[in-house]
Amino acid sequence: MTAGPGVAAGRDGAVRGAEARWEERVQRAAHPVAYPAVRALRHRPVARVPRVGLVVSDAAVAREVLLDVDRFSKVGPGSPSDLWTPILGPSVLLNMEGAEHAAMRRALGPIFSPRAVRELVAGRESGGPAMGGALAEMAARLDAGGTVDLAAVVAAQAGAVICGLVGLPPTDAAVRESMAAAQAVTGMVRLHRRRLTTSQVAHARRVLEELTAPARDAYRAGDESTVPGRMRGLGLSEREAMGAVGAFVLTGTETIQSFVPRLLAIAHDTGWMERLLASGGELRRPVVEEALRVTVPTPAMLRSVRADAVVGGHRVHAGDRVVIATVNCCRGAGAFDPGAAVDPDVRHLWFGAGPHFCLGMPLAMAQVDAVLDTLAPLATGGRRVVVGRRRPARRVLVPAYRGLELSLAGPQASQTGA
Length: 418
Ligand code: HEM
Hints:
Layout: H1 6-10, H2 13-30, H3 34-39, E1 46-49, E2 53-56, H4 59-67, E3 72-73, H5 80-88, H6 98-108, H7 114-122, H8 130-143, E4 148-149, H9 150-166, H10 172-186, H11 198-211, H12 213-221, H13 227-233, H14 238-252, H15 254-270, H16 273-277, H17 284-295, E5 301-305, E6 309-311, E7 314-316, E8 321-324, H18 326-331, H19 361-375, E9 384-392, E10 401-409
Helix pairs in contact: 2-15, 7-19, 8-9, 8-19, 9-10, 9-14, 9-15, 10-11, 12-13, 12-14, 15-17
The structure holds protoporphyrin IX containing FE (HEM).
């Protein structure tokens, strides 16, 4: 990308320091032991760690593993299938490989078309204002000179998207309950445990069963204005459709809740907020991508070794586990700087690589854009969006802010009529 006036600000040591300090706090609050342990390996492209596996911290090596589907799999000992198959069933993308996996991705493609995600985000799927409601309320409160908690707004937004996915009208209660259900399941996962206990599995299945009950009804009714109904139209069996809905809820909720407040925090801390929200928006994408690179909302990817192989000079055998420390691979490219050229090995690695590349990326970007589109018109006429008090979330799977206050600084007269 072209280097603009932002490059100098992005390279400003003092400003960048605030970003790095807050990110460190967010990461350590979530994983006080695992995060420092993983970061300690950052200068070793590949390291064998007893009881954990072969840890990869180099983007080029990570890409090789992710693209080599003959030797590395998401199914098998130590892979995500150990965690998710007992809860979601055997065919939910993230625990599939090969031709069946490719066929399921093709079938689900239309659910994530640009138009479909726009509708999901606008709430038209579920027949209500959905997240538009939470965002409009945020705009009105900011415009009136108030303070909002962006973490709460994004939680409402994510809950509304879940409602859209399962085909529920996004009432306040439904949004809250959907979000609580998703968090109850992801909250059980711990980095140091490879499987959930029997009682955790039973509890997670009950919670998901309840959450996806409306999805089952929508699937059976075959109403193509709902996501489950559309999945039926696309040829998915009821079991596959329910598994896919469960997988979307589990993969797509906390990542967004993690990322959006951290994006705004980083833009504030580095002096990039105005350019992130500027009209025209040509700097929006580089800022968002760079914030994804330094936050890495999915900090690790797991693979089970299918056949003997060599990874970054280390021999691995069938049944071993490879842990891609995506957080090390991506952050190794330096501190936040939207003006810097992006190493092709690192580019989009935060969304994975190869056949399991994040299917929900268009939905994630649409959700980010919805928040930025709401804030952009407020940051005009000399007013600026500023970050106030914030509080990292403790002991969560995906590092995040528990609370992050936003307000407007500058002339207080209403600029938008929001
Ligand atoms: C900033 C937000 C997000 C990030 C950083 C992210 C990151 C990732 C990564 C790294 C993977 C690959 C994991 C691997 O190969 O082991 C992945 C897969 C996936 N993501 Fe996302 N994700 C995000 C949002 C979403 C959303 C909103 C959805 C919505 C439904 C979603 C759905 C999925 C699914 C279904 C897969 C599995 C794809 C497959 O196995 O074929 N993600 N994501």
